[in-house]
Amino acid sequence: MTAAAIFPALPLFLPELLLAGGALALLLIGAFAGPRSTAFVNGMTLLLLIVAGALVAMQPEGRTIAFNGAFVVDGFGRFMKVLALIGAAGALMLSFDDFRQRRLSAFEYPVLVLLSVTGMMVMISAGDLIALYIGLELQSLAIYVICAFDRDSTRSTEAGLKYFVLGALSSGMLLYGASLIYGFTGTVSFAGIAAAVTGAPHSGVIFGLAFLAAGLAFKMSAVPFHMWTPDVYEGAPTPVTAFLASAPKVAAVAITVRVLVGAFPGITGQWQQIIVFVSFASMALGAFAAIGQHNIKRLMAYSSIGHMGFALVGLAAGTEQGVYGVLLYMAIYVAMTLGVFACIVSMRRNGQPVEAISDLAGLSKQHPAMAYLFALLMFSLAGIPPLAGFFAKFYVFAAAIQAKLTLLAVFGILTSVVGAFYYLRIVKVMFFDEPKEALDPMPGAAKLVLALSSIVTVGYFVAPALLNVVAVAAAKTLF
Amino acid sequence: MIAAAVFFYLFSAVAVASAFMVIASRNPVHSVLFLILTFANVTGLFILLGAEFLGLLLIIVYVGAVAVLFLFVVMMLDVDFAELKKGALQYMPVGALVGLVLLAELVMIIGAWLAPAGVPRTVAAPIPPAAQITNTEALARVLYTDFVFYFQAAGLVLLVAMIGAIVLTLRHKPNVRRQDISRQVARNKEDVIELRKVPFRRGL
Amino acid sequence: MYHAIVFLPLAGFLIAGLFGRIMGARASEIVTTSLLFVSAALSWVVFWQVAYQSGPVHVTIVNWMTSGGLAADWALKIDTLTAVMLVVVNTVSALVHLYSIGYMHEDPSRPRFFAYLSLFTFAMLMLVTADNLVQMFFGWEGVGLASYLLIGFWYEKPSANAAAMKAFVVNRVGDFGFLLGIFIVFVMTGSVAFDQIFPKAAEMAGKTFHFLGYDWNAMTIACLMLFMGAMGKSAQFLLHTWLPDAMEGPTPVSALIHAATMVTAGVFMVARLTPLFELAPTALVVMTVVGATTAFFAATVGLVQNDIKRVIAYSTCSQLGYMFVALGVGAFGAGVFHLFTHAFFKALLFLGAGSVIHACHHEQDMRNMGGLRKYIPYTMIAMLIGNLALTGFPYTAGYFSKDAIIESAFASHSPAATYAFLCVVIAALFTSFYSWRLFFMTFFGEPRWKHHDAHGHEDHASAAHGRDDHAHAGHGHGDHTPHESPMVMMIPLAVLSVGALVAGAVFAGSFIGDNYEQFWKGALFTAKDNHILHDIHHVPLWVKLSPMIMMILGFVIAWWFYVKNPALPKQLAADQPILYRFLLNKWYFDEIYDFLFVRPAKWIGSFLWKKGDGWLIDGFGPDGVSARVVDVARGAVRLQSGYLYHYAFAMLIGVAILVTWYLVGGAH
């Protein structure tokens, strides 16, 4: 490929270029201007994320490729990229005040977030296994670092280290799977693999697929590759947890969908079994393990495991309808998660962050607005109509039933009933338990995030078409 | 060709054996040394395959830098690996079982792959013959053209690793006296030296 | 007017029930009592019109329910039978209301009491004015509810609660039969309205239905089932056990519900359904036997009871048996007539007993009375009149009705009727004995209350009247002399005394005599070959005289035992310990039922509770699920050890599982 070939493709990867270049520029500014520049770098990063989102949204319809197929731009990718950018922007906003109070403010954080998001976008757009792996590593490596960002805290560094070691292991598996697939098909491009793997494939391909799926499942924190999630969620600084719970999940789900649907359409029946198993296990664990939790961040970790299980129900269907469900699920999941973390980030008493569920006791009397919106989000996470969380579940279950995966759908409904227990327990604590000493008031950015999240959660019921139309178009580009 | 085959099996066998010794030896220094042996043998395999650039890179980068760094770290930290491994023994049976299962499955697959020759052996970018173009040049030709995307993205990964290392470890301790060359250079006698007339037998 | 009769008590109930706390006890008493008096007065007017003037009236209030073929109106069917019941119910109820003002004057929850009384009256009126079986069942259950509430009125007393529950549960057995009877009738005739059932009775009589491999005669089964309902409500043999226990309620309640009105509902129901029963001879035979047995059995038990109210309660039971004998042998007029007269003298006896109890500061044990004639002469006169009427002293109310029953039992020449005749004659002897025994023990002999009055009084006051501390305003604690009851209690006694004396003489001609046809106007159906009310005029003289002889004999024995030679009863009891204990323990019915039903039921209940509900349903249902959830949660949490190599190991196992899955079974 020559320069003449690269530049026409420029609009396709302009958002990624903007983010990467922006990251480099902000890194230089920060390095030379020192800690004074942190606020500026923060603001610029937010701006970059928003601009990148706008650029992604304005990219041409349909499917176009660049770099010999390593980079794919289609409706599906654009939808997921926008989601990831929203998640990153929201989580970044939550970090401003929190890091200032923890005295953690540093210009490196937004730069690392930017680089991580760049990795996610590369990953979402990946058209072959190499781009997939590089994007994944770029994303993960930055996250390992920001998990340990509070380096004076044992829990934070432990979280970063654990994530790093297990992430390395999962990367190893993914690479092993990718090399097996390359070995048995002779190509790394998804399109090439799809052409090579038809009918009854060689078991080596499936072997590789299993390893590949294991690596991706780790990134989605799906059972049984979820073990890092509770520890890391709990240990990492709360805004980092918010980031972890939103953007990387979107990217991981997106690439999983793209690999499975894009590279292995010929053996849907085979990979369906992996996804069904993983989905089953994730929903069950997410529902049951969260019950015993006292730390709200840990609880949210199990909650996100469960939600990944639900999202995978849609993927397990393997149909356009199913992918549509996944897209909707992720969109609503990101909105709800950001809102919940806006509340969790705001849980401070006399300036000190608190994380126990019991610290929420009596919130309804101290901060009624926050308590009501928090309760609303909890109801939505539990999947209670007419909130958005209900429709998210509805679409994936409907797709599963259409794909004759009735058992999976029924199991999903059962686990969501069990899961409702711990969501409602939080509501109970907020509204019916004896109040403790009052929490500090919410910072402005958190208020904004919570408000936007609540609007989506409630508003989806009012105007579902706004989201549905886009999701339908996005799902169509994969098939 | 027989010589090539003999060397292939020799390098392979030694590589696998020494890789095993990396994890099996009790002394961590020995482990690192076995790691270096593994690298050396893999270099041999690369060269047998005609990828002399990668082979030499392995020697220079991994053996010359990474493995030696490992050696220093291991020697400096003085970690008692025997102590660490103690707890792991209780998981040996289960671990061995899982490992055996995976190994058996791998063997089955490789066997199945060797038996029928119908599997496509297409290679995306075959190594050009050494007579026409050198290995290094062939790599260089695609690195900034066809694979510029991967190359740049990988560069970003390395950048992140660098930032991460700095963020997590660099500390500005206020009480540590550091050398500040510009201040040293800018000093002059008038600012730092004061001459006093000390009265006899009275002190300052 | 008809509406007023039925709805004034309801209005009283609503006013006293809803606003009783606000307007106070006195206002509640006045409102409910005056409404009842209005209602009673109107009832007499209606009785006069319907029985002697214009004839039956039918008033539709509202269409109650229509569901498929089932149509039930809420309507008032007022014929002579209903009119008789209206008179009985409203008169006694009004008098009991008045009486209660005096009797209950120490009780703090009088508004509630009067509300319940009015509720009961309304339900009873619904029952007697019903024009279909469903409405009748509604009233039937309504009186059951009111009865439950009133028996358990002093709900602090465990015994009262137990008695209330017992009454309710035993009645459920009967109601089950009643419901089945209604169902059969509905299935067979396609209607529940009396006006549509009765014309079809003849065709129904021939029908059979197939059940459990047999063909059953529909009419017989239906009537037996309906009679089972009547047995429960009217405390007939085998289902009688609740009635004596129901005496735990306040005495006016006993007079109203458990003597005059509710317990006669069974008799009324059979009388109302005579067009059906007349075509079911088997059911009538059963009814005769059951009634006779009850009359005899209850009388024997009444001989030895010491609680003044229990004696009268067993007497009631016995008299109800008489009524069923009359119905069973086809002398429907006699049965209803006895119902009518019995209401007066039995209410009189109960209220008189209440006056005695009131005088003795809520002492109910006759062994702690005696010699009261000097202290409460008017009450004694009232009780004397009641006794005379009950035992059938010539020309009192009981004389006409009871003798008519005994004679009709003789005149009907079936074996069952002969058995019934023997039973009721012997029962007449016993009736006379226990009535006079009660009378003598209470009013004659040595006063036994002085010796241990302080002790006995405290004991019984607290037992009988657990809730109030019995302050005795006006007469201090030192003075335990029996005292005559206030005027509000004496007036009802006087009115009922008049009724007990003359009701028989005045109405005998109408109910069972020459004016039978004009009076009933077909309200009681009699088959063409049923001439029993004529036959009773032709029975031998010894039959006619037998009740009289029995009465005198009973009186003499009682006088001998309790006035002339008071030591004799104890000696007799000591000589015949087995018989005495047998009778004292009411033929051991409670014990037998306890063994046969209560304990197995409790065992089944506790089995179902502990094993069925606790172990099976809770264990595998809610508790089990939640416990498993917690277990699973705990397990899942324990997996989360925090050790890196555990996590890594879990991932490796996971990937191994995935791969193995494919190689072994998944792929291809």
UniProtKB/TrEMBL annotation, chain A:
<feature type="transmembrane region" description="Helical">
    <location>
        <begin position="394"/>
        <end position="424"/>
    </location>
</feature>
<feature type="domain" description="NADH:quinone oxidoreductase/Mrp antiporter transmembrane">
    <location>
        <begin position="126"/>
        <end position="418"/>
    </location>
</feature>
<keyword id="KW-0830">Ubiquinone</keyword>
<feature type="transmembrane region" description="Helical">
    <location>
        <begin position="445"/>
        <end position="475"/>
    </location>
</feature>
<keyword id="KW-0813">Transport</keyword>
<keyword id="KW-1278">Translocase</keyword>
<dbReference type="GO" id="GO:0005886">
    <property type="term" value="C:plasma membrane"/>
</dbReference>
<comment type="subunit">
    <text>NDH-1 is composed of 14 different subunits. Subunits NuoA, H, J, K, L, M, N constitute the membrane sector of the complex.</text>
</comment>
<keyword id="KW-0472">Membrane</keyword>
<dbReference type="GO" id="GO:0042773">
    <property type="term" value="P:ATP synthesis coupled electron transport"/>
</dbReference>
<feature type="transmembrane region" description="Helical">
    <location>
        <begin position="369"/>
        <end position="388"/>
    </location>
</feature>
<dbReference type="GO" id="GO:0012505">
    <property type="term" value="C:endomembrane system"/>
</dbReference>
<comment type="similarity">
    <text>Belongs to the complex I subunit 2 family.</text>
</comment>
<feature type="transmembrane region" description="Helical">
    <location>
        <begin position="106"/>
        <end position="124"/>
    </location>
</feature>
<dbReference type="GO" id="GO:0048038">
    <property type="term" value="F:quinone binding"/>
</dbReference>
TrEMBL record, chain B:
<feature type="transmembrane region" description="Helical">
    <location>
        <begin position="32"/>
        <end position="51"/>
    </location>
</feature>
<feature type="transmembrane region" description="Helical">
    <location>
        <begin position="147"/>
        <end position="170"/>
    </location>
</feature>
<comment type="similarity">
    <text>Belongs to the complex I subunit 6 family.</text>
</comment>
<dbReference type="GO" id="GO:0005886">
    <property type="term" value="C:plasma membrane"/>
</dbReference>
<keyword id="KW-0472">Membrane</keyword>
<dbReference type="GO" id="GO:0048038">
    <property type="term" value="F:quinone binding"/>
</dbReference>
<keyword id="KW-1133">Transmembrane helix</keyword>
<dbReference type="InterPro" id="IPR001457">
    <property type="entry name" value="NADH_UbQ/plastoQ_OxRdtase_su6"/>
</dbReference>
<comment type="function">
    <text>NDH-1 shuttles electrons from NADH, via FMN and iron-sulfur (Fe-S) centers, to quinones in the respiratory chain. Couples the redox reaction to proton translocation (for every two electrons transferred, four hydrogen ions are translocated across the cytoplasmic membrane), and thus conserves the redox energy in a proton gradient.</text>
</comment>
<dbReference type="GO" id="GO:0008137">
    <property type="term" value="F:NADH dehydrogenase (ubiquinone) activity"/>
</dbReference>
<dbReference type="Pfam" id="PF00499">
    <property type="entry name" value="Oxidored_q3"/>
</dbReference>
<feature type="transmembrane region" description="Helical">
    <location>
        <begin position="91"/>
        <end position="115"/>
    </location>
</feature>
<protein>
    <recommendedName>
        <fullName>NADH-quinone oxidoreductase subunit J</fullName>
        <ecNumber>7.1.1.-</ecNumber>
    </recommendedName>
</protein>
<feature type="transmembrane region" description="Helical">
    <location>
        <begin position="6"/>
        <end position="25"/>
    </location>
</feature>
<keyword id="KW-0812">Transmembrane</keyword>
Automatic annotation (TrEMBL), chain C:
<feature type="region of interest" description="Disordered">
    <location>
        <begin position="455"/>
        <end position="481"/>
    </location>
</feature>
<keyword id="KW-1133">Transmembrane helix</keyword>
<feature type="transmembrane region" description="Helical">
    <location>
        <begin position="176"/>
        <end position="194"/>
    </location>
</feature>
<feature type="transmembrane region" description="Helical">
    <location>
        <begin position="30"/>
        <end position="50"/>
    </location>
</feature>
<feature type="transmembrane region" description="Helical">
    <location>
        <begin position="253"/>
        <end position="271"/>
    </location>
</feature>
<dbReference type="Pfam" id="PF00361">
    <property type="entry name" value="Proton_antipo_M"/>
</dbReference>
<feature type="transmembrane region" description="Helical">
    <location>
        <begin position="214"/>
        <end position="232"/>
    </location>
</feature>
<dbReference type="GO" id="GO:0003954">
    <property type="term" value="F:NADH dehydrogenase activity"/>
</dbReference>
<feature type="transmembrane region" description="Helical">
    <location>
        <begin position="493"/>
        <end position="512"/>
    </location>
</feature>
<feature type="transmembrane region" description="Helical">
    <location>
        <begin position="136"/>
        <end position="155"/>
    </location>
</feature>
<feature type="transmembrane region" description="Helical">
    <location>
        <begin position="375"/>
        <end position="396"/>
    </location>
</feature>
<dbReference type="Pfam" id="PF00662">
    <property type="entry name" value="Proton_antipo_N"/>
</dbReference>
<feature type="transmembrane region" description="Helical">
    <location>
        <begin position="283"/>
        <end position="304"/>
    </location>
</feature>
<keyword id="KW-0472">Membrane</keyword>
<feature type="domain" description="NADH-Ubiquinone oxidoreductase (complex I) chain 5 N-terminal">
    <location>
        <begin position="64"/>
        <end position="114"/>
    </location>
</feature>
